[in-house]
Amino acid sequence: MVVVTRNFHLVKLIPSLSHTSRHFSVKSTYHPGDQITVGGRQYPADHMTNITPHILSHLGKNLHLQQYHPLCHILDRIVKYMYSRYLTPRGNPLFSVHSQLHPVVTTQQNFDSLLIPKDHVSRKKSDNFYVNEEQLLRAHTSAHQCELMRMGFDNFLVIGDVYRRDEIDSSHYPVFHQVEGVRLLTKSDVYGKQQDMKEYELFTPEGPPTHHPHVINILKADLKDCLQGLATTLFGRDVEMRWVDAYFPFTHPSWELEVKLNDQWTEMLGCGIIQHQVLLNADVEERVGWAFGLGLERWAMKLYQIPDIRVFWSTDPGFLSQFAFDDPATNVNFKVVSKHTPCINDISFWLPSVSSYEAADFYDIVRSIGGNLVEQVYLVDQFTHPHTSRTSHCYRIVYRHMDRILTQEEVNRVHSRIEQETTTALGVTIR
Ligand code: DAH
Fold first, then answer.
1. Where is the Aminoacyl-transfer RNA synthetases class-II family profile domain (predicted)?
2. 138 phi and psi, to 5 degrees?
């Protein structure tokens, strides 16, 4: 059987993959007059309300805006790429970036404005988090296309958390982050100012407005070149890519870009030429355009080889410290974080008075003695004595084993060997 799924795709339905909602305990009855607070705003609840406290706890986290978060690094690279590719005549970035739009949208925004039929499966209560009959947590960033176009934006990116009632496993989590790109063009943007405008139209002259074939070709070339460029910017010049025809109600024609990584083809984004009716829904006339949508987690998982989508919500320093760098294009060889709790020991010492001390030498000692037991080591404090002018450093060492629980005694033995070696090799005095 072929159905249009909640992902807004046309795919074969495999019965064994259909969803269950067993992970969600839903407050089953909301009475008329009940209120629900979502993202700091109050809404009337009703029979459709199915947002759980667990889901509410994710609102406002904005992982994509958190400094040093992997999703923030990827977003940074995507935005920089779009900024540099499309410039105004004065040399400024053409695209505007909207990354803090409130996640509650209307069914009109999430579905109707995008031509998603009334009986479409993607509207099901079992697939979405409804605030009430008329509002829901956005299921995709496409929900903001129309409002931004209506406000007059022609080239924009929308970034936000999106919510779907998925099962939770290593590649599904009910909250993830999408980037939406929209580019609208006027006739002169499409054909260039020199052309005789009479010959070059945006729409075919007869029948309901249909894009002129030239328009489709010009937009398609720009769209595909843009997105292939994005993929090579992130995954490197040699990455293998292919285009696959797709179906979305709001674009036609539509495509997906697949990228071959570790010998496996993976769908990285959906895109297409915006249906004329979508523009009319936003009161935009005399323009044509393209749009794309991509999931930041998917890109991050492929780029950093992160095996589990749940890890993005981790506040464990063993995860976050792997991304603590300023250049978002830094290569990361991601190491899976141990499930076991860490043992944390500090070490404080006075530096030798004739200072030949280098922190890098200390780190080498920690690594060579601690080996794989050391997950992290970093400076937590330094202090210069006002009278003696001696300087002391305090470092924190996080010990954690990938496969087993470490005992404090075992850690203490390693720690004191580190203290001894630091004293003899670097001439420091343990405090
Ligand atoms: N909103 C789609 C989804 O979440 C992705 C998408 C596809 C966005 C095509 C677009 C587009 O803007 O043109 O599955």
1. 159-317
2. -50, 135
Ligand 1 center–CA 161 separation, angstroms: 14
| Lookup result for tokens 């009703």 | 46
Are residues 340 and 400 in contact, defined by beta-carbon separation less than 8 angstroms?
Answer: yes
CA-nearest of 179, 175, 226, 156 to 76 is 179
Neighbours of 82 (CB within 10 A): 22
CA of 274 to the centre of ligand 1 (A): 10
- 161 is written with which tokens? 């958390």
Cβ(95) – ligand 1 distance below 6 Å: no
Long-range contacts of 410-416, Cβ-Cβ distance < 8 Å, separation of 24 or more = 411/343, 411/345, 411/373, 412/345, 414/369, 414/370, 414/373, 415/345, 415/347
Atom of ligand 1 minimally distant from the CA of 162: 4
Cα dihedral value 115, 119, 125, 126, nearest 10: -110
> Ligand 1: which atom is nearest the Cα of residue 141?
1
- Residue-wise pLDDT tens digits, 247-304: 999 999 999 999 999 899 999 999 999 999 999 999 999 999 999 999 999 999 999 9
**248: CA distance to ligand 1 center in Å?**
7
Q: What is the mean pLDDT of residues 154-161?
A: 98
Give the nearest ligand 1 atom to 251 CA. 13
Provide the 3-class DSSP secondary structure of residue 88: coil
